[in-house]
Each structure stands twice: as structure tokens, then as C-alpha cells.
Design goal:
The structure holds 2 protein chains of 2 kinds.
Chain A: E1 3-5, E2 12-14, E3 19-23, H1 35-42, E4 51-57, E5 65-71, E6 77-81, H2 90-99, E7 104-105, E8 108-109
Antiparallel strand pairs in A: 1-2, 3-4, 4-5, 5-6, 7-8
Chain B: H1 6-14, E1 32-38, H2 42-55, E2 60-63, E3 79-80, H3 87-101, H4 103-107, E4 118-122, H5 125-141, E5 146-148, H6 150-156, E6 171-175, E7 179-180, H7 183-196, E8 200-202, E9 207-213, E10 216-222, E11 225-234, H8 240-247, E12 253-265, E13 273-276, E14 281-285, E15 290-297, H9 309-322, E16 331-342, E17 348-351, E18 357-361, H10 371-384, H11 396-400
Parallel strand pairs in B: 1-2, 1-11, 2-8, 4-13, 11-18
Antiparallel strand pairs in B: 3-7, 4-6, 5-6, 9-10, 10-11, 12-15, 12-16, 13-14, 14-15, 17-18
Helix pairs in contact in B: 2-7, 2-10, 3-10
Classes of the chains: A alpha+beta, B alpha/beta.
Bound molecules: flavin-adenine dinucleotide (FAD) and zinc ion.
């Protein structure tokens, strides 16, 4: 069972308390954007076998959205962080680089690259 | 290769079963093939089979990183039905269902197709309306289904409790010629037939890279060396995103874990397949007597073939209300498979952005039933560049907003 630490209320919440919200740090495209941009925003998703960044909501708890960094292959949780950021904090990226040298994710790169 | 028959069984019995041949050869890869199919699940093998049978293309290799049928094809709960809502889905699923009817004869391999009938229970007013609508749509599509009342459901499934306190049974969508088949046998039967046509089925051969030149595919790198090809079919279900990345494009697919479980074997008690979509559970009884139970998917990307424990609890809790007699059953085994989910819950059968590459994926939680139809259509697409059955399932539907929305019609799509 997946356990994530909610960075807002500090609870270590287990899966049934949480709701998964899909890929993190999406750039939103609205009216005026091209068909490709809109398609990408709506449907194309990172689907890595390995390091992944996601949005989660502590739905049966404080109700807040937050971010999580996970490995989809081992279910290891690297850490959780605030929803109010555009990319994962550097120290979390460093921590992931130590465990998964050479990891890549969309336009975010590990610090060792 | 010798044919299987009643005579062959008698002959082998008389000589202590010493004369059975290997069902398929396991050769080393050649330098080059006309067509390489990645993934020896049902869809990959069926594609290869119909390339040979319908189009005479037999210089084909099917590459599999693990063992044949070890992906979702060997992990599913084997429900076969074609009572979908949209015309494009009905066409390909009904093509598949009708091919299942004669698959054992066609392949000379007993796939144990059992058209025992499938009921999808309506347990809310919303579902009653939804399934009545599907029954009307099916009538227009030429797919034989019927909306039946609770008494008829009880008649077909004596062990069901139709007036459960929370989710009473208000009726059901009944497809008489739906049913189940032996999943491994489908993979094995196709593999044997492909091998017989001279195709190479290569297990323990993982594709690790896709090579292209000037926007056209030229081959793949594998754990058994580089292999060239003119055309490449990617048929890897949950790993479609990984393969697409190797070839440099993205797919509108996310991979999740879906689980199933079976009980200890008991005496025959239910001779149809029952799906209860509102409570996310479905059940059939195997020939061995086990109750085969499927549940929900995890809500987050996951490549482990496990799935979360609490889903089992949810599924079983809901089923116990509808089938009180299973409350005493012990569960024997549980497992998961990585399912490839698209936004509209419909598959992708399409040319890829790289010339010569074709993708067949997105069958998600419900592609076992589609194997022969999908292979038939995919072979036509790869051989001729287009197929009437795949037209609506192209990747361009996502940019054009032409979805084939089956997610509203069925909460669970197995
Ligand atoms: C628990 C569960 C229950 C289900 N119940 C039903 C049901 O009742 N009815 C129904 O119709 N459907 C059901 N499904 C869905 C169905 O199983 C799938 O849609 C279908 O089996 C997909 O077949 P496939 O050939 O596309 O994929 P798979 O059988 O998964 O085959 C893909 C193959 O590709 C291989 N592969 C991956 N990456 C590589 C690589 N890099 N190189 C070489 N090979 C690679 C894999 O090892 C795998 O063998 C269920 C699925 C699950 C998990
Ligand atoms: Zn919280």
C-alpha cells in the first residue's frame, strides 16, 4: 500500500485517504493555442517506467493538493512537495539523482546531466 | 507439423505420449525480416497470424521480452463480449467475437471458447437507462443483445441476490453468445500456427531500441542483437509508452495496474459470466471450479504487476452483497497486469509518426475479447496501409476530437 506524506497537514496518509491527480507540472493551453498544443495538454502524458512526478490530493484528510515524486517501477516514494511550485525542489531532484543516476523526465533533468 | 485430432490422442496414448512435437520452434533471430512484431501477447501473435493467413506475408518475427503470453494475455479474466455502444467498437469487437466461434477449428488448437452468455447487471436507474440504450444500439449494429428484467437474471443466475439492500438488481444487458476462452491457449494456438507458417517466435528477446533513418524505421536493437525490418508493429500493451519513447514519439496512454483473483475450486454453481459495473466486480466460474474475480484498477501510474490490496477488499465486499454464498470462500491467488489506458477508453490501431511503424495498444482493461479482430484489422493495416476496422481508431482522433467514448457506457470495460 502506497503511503505519502502530506506536506500541508503533515499526515502520513495511506492510499485510501488520497486521490491521484495525474502528471504534475503540466503547462495549460487554452483558447488561441494550436491543435497540437491542445492535444498534448489534454491527452499526452508522461508514462515513464521509473521516476515520475504527480499531483495528489489528500482528499479524505486536509483536502489539499500536493506533488509527489515516485518510481512507477518499484513504487518507491522519493518525496512529496508543495503544489505551489513549477518544478520539484532541487534537493529532491538531487536525492533522486543519487538513487537513479541519469534519470530524465520531460523537460526536467537530473542535476548530474 | 502434425495436426491435433482425436486420432492423434489415441495414437499417442498407445505409445506413451512419446510422439508429441514442440508446438512452436524457438530459433535464433535472422538478420532481417519484412515485418517485426514486438510483443508476443494475443494481439501481437494474432497480427502475425493474419499477416500470414490473409496476406501471405510470412517473413515475420515476433519478439517477446519474457515468455509467450506472459503479459496481460495470460493474466486476464477472459471475458468475451461485444456489447459496446459506439459503432466502431461494435464492429471490431463483434468481428473478434465471431472469430472466437471458430478459432479452435481454424487454429487446430482447442482454445476452449465457451459462449456461456454474459450479463452486465444494472444496479442503478442510471445503468438501466444506459444498458437499454446499448441494447438498442446493438440492435442497429447487428450485435445480438437484449435487456432483461430481474426475474430473468435470477433464472440465469440462481445464486444471485436480486434485492440487495444497497444495490438491488434492476435488470441486465444479456449477450447470449458472449462467454470465456482459455487465455493461454489463445496465445499458444496462434504461436503454433505462426511457427507452422515459417514465422520466428523469439522469446527472451527484449527490444531495447528502435532504429530509424530519414524518418523511416529500419530495425530494432534487442538483447539478442540488432535485427532489421521494413515494417515494425508495436503491440506491447502496458509498455507502449516505453516503446514509443524508444522510437521518439509519445502516445496518449497511461499504464496502470489491474488485478484479478481466484477462489478455491467449488462445485459448479454459476454457468454464465456476471459483471457488476457499479460495484466494480465481475465473476465467472472456471472449468476447474474456481470463481474467477476481477476488480478495479489502481488510480495511478504503475508498472508493478501487483495492484493495491484495498481493491481486493472493495471488490470482494461488493460481490458478497450480490452473491452471499461466496462469503465463505477462500481466495487462492491474486495477481496484476499492466493495462494501457487511453483517454476515451478505446484502443489505438494506427500508423505511428515514424514511417513503417504501426501501433496497436490502448486495449486497457478489456482487450482479451478483441484479440482475433484486432489481429485481423492490424494485419490489414500493416499490409495495405489502411483497414476499414481501424479507421476510427487512429492516433489522429485525439487531435481532431473524434473520440470513441466507451468510458461513459461502462464503468468497467473488461
Ligand atoms: C487482471 C486483468 C483482467 C482482465 N480481464 C479481461 C477480460 O475479462 N476480458 C477482456 O477482454 N480483457 C481483459 N483484460 C485485458 C486484456 O488482458 C488485455 O487487453 C490484452 O490481453 C492485451 O493483450 P496484448 O497482446 O495487447 O498485451 P500483452 O498480453 O500484455 O502482451 C504484450 C507483450 O509485450 C511484451 N513486451 C513489452 N515490452 C517489450 C519489449 N521491450 N520487447 C519485447 N517484448 C515486450 C510483454 O512482455 C508482453 O508479453 C484484463 C487484464 C487484466 C490485467
Ligand atoms: Zn493533508
Amino acid at each position: 500500500m502506497l503511503i505519502l506524506h502530506c506536506p500541508y497537514c503533515g499526515v502520513d496518509a495511506e492510499e485510501t485517504e488520497l486521490h491521484a491527480g495525474g502528471e504534475a507540472h503540466l503547462k495549460r493551453f487554452g483558447p488561441g493555442s494550436s491543435d497540437e498544443e491542445f492535444e498534448g495538454y489534454l491527452f499526452h502524458r508522461e508514462n515513464p517506467k521509473g521516476v515520475h512526478f504527480e499531483r495528489w490530493r489528500h482528499v479524505n484528510g486536509c483536502g489539499k493538493w500536493f506533488h509527489a515524486a515516485r518510481c512507477t517501477n518499484t513504487l518507491e516514494v522519493f518525496g512529496t512537495y508543495s503544489a505551489q511550485v513549477f518544478e520539484p525542489p532541487q534537493e529532491l531532484q538531487d536525492k533522486i539523482s543519487a538513487k537513479r543516476p541519469g534519470w530524465e523526465w520531460r523537460d526536467l533533468k537530473g542535476s548530474d546531466q | 507439423m502434425k495436426r491435433y485430432s482425436a486420432f492423434a490422442i489415441a495414437r499417442e496414448a498407445a505409445r506413451y505420449h512419446t510422439g508429441w512435437e514442440r508446438a512452436w520452434a524457438s530459433p535464433k533471430p535472422k538478420k532481417k525480416y519484412d515485418v517485426i512484431i514486438v510483443g508476443a501477447g494475443g494481439h501481437g501473435l494474432a497480427t502475425a497470424y493474419y499477416l500470414g493467413k490473409n496476406f501471405g506475408i510470412t517473413n515475420v518475427a515476433v519478439l517477446e521480452k519474457g515468455w509467450l503470453g506472459g503479459g496481460n494475455t495470460g493474466r486476464n479474466t477472459t471475458i468475451i463480449r461485444s456489447n459496446y455502444l459506439q459503432d466502431a467498437s461494435a464492429a471490431i469487437y463483434e468481428k473478434a467475437r465471431s472469430l472466437y466461434e471458430t478459432m479452435s477449428q481454424d487454429l487446430n488448437y482447442n482454445v476452449m471458447f465457451s459462449p456461456r452468455g454474459v450479463i452486465m447487471l444494472a444496479q442503478t436507474e442510471h445503468e438501466v437507462r444506459g444498458y437499454q440504450r446499448t441494447a438498442h444500439a446493438n440492435a442497429l449494429q447487428g450485435v445480438k443483445t437484449e435487456f432483461i428484467g430481474p426475474e430473468r437474471v435470477k433464472e440465469l443466475v440462481p445464486i444471485i441476490n436480486i434485492d440487495g439492500p444497497r444495490y438491488p438488481v434492476l435488470g441486465g444487458l444479456w449477450q447470449e453468445r458472449g462467454g470465456t476462452a482459455r487465455h493461454d491457449a489463445v496465445a499458444w494456438g496462434y504461436a503454433r500456427a505462426c511457427s507452422q507458417m515459417g514465422m520466428d517466435i523469439i522469446q527472451k528477446c527484449e527490444v531495447t531500441g528502435v532504429r530509424s533513418e530519414g524518418g523511416k524505421v529500419v530495425g530494432v536493437d534487442t538483447t539478442q542483437g540488432a535485427i532489421d525490418c521494413d515494417k515494425l508493429g508495436m503491440v506491447v500493451a502496458g509498455h507502449s509508452g516505453v516503446l514509443a519513447e524508444m522510437a521518439g514519439f509519445r502516445l496518449p496512454i497511461e499504464s496502470l495496474s489491474l488485478q484479478a483473483l481466484v477462489s478455491e475450486p467449488i462445485k459448479p454453481c454459476m454457468d454464465v459470466v456476471v459483471m457488476a459495473n457499479t460495484v466494480h466486480g465481475y465473476m465467472s466460474q472456471s472449468d476447474k471450479g474456481e470463481m474467477v474475480i476481477g476488480g478495479g484498477t489502481d488510480g495511478y501510474n504503475n508498472y508493478t504487476q501487483r495492484g493495491s490490496y484495498h481493491h481486493i477488499e472493495e471488490t470482494v465486499r461488493a460481490l458478497v452483497e450480490t452473491f452471499p454464498m461466496i462469503s465463505r470462500l477462500k481466495m487462492l491467488r491474486q495477481w496484476g497486469g499492466i493495462v494501457d489506458m487511453t483517454g476515451d477508453r478505446s484502443p489505438i490501431l494506427s500508423k505511428a509518426p515514424v514511417d513503417g511503424i504501426f501501433v496497436n495498444c490502448g486495449w486497457g482493461t478489456g482487450g482479451f475479447k478483441a484479440i482475433p479482430g484486432s489481429g485481423w484489422a492490424m494485419a490489414e493495416l500493416m499490409a495495405k496501409g489502411h483497414s476499414p476496422l481501424t479507421e476510427e481508431f487512429g492516433l489522429n482522433r485525439f487531435s481532431e476530437g473524434r473520440f470513441i467514448d466507451e468510458s461513459v457506457a461502462a464503468g468497467v470495460a473488461h
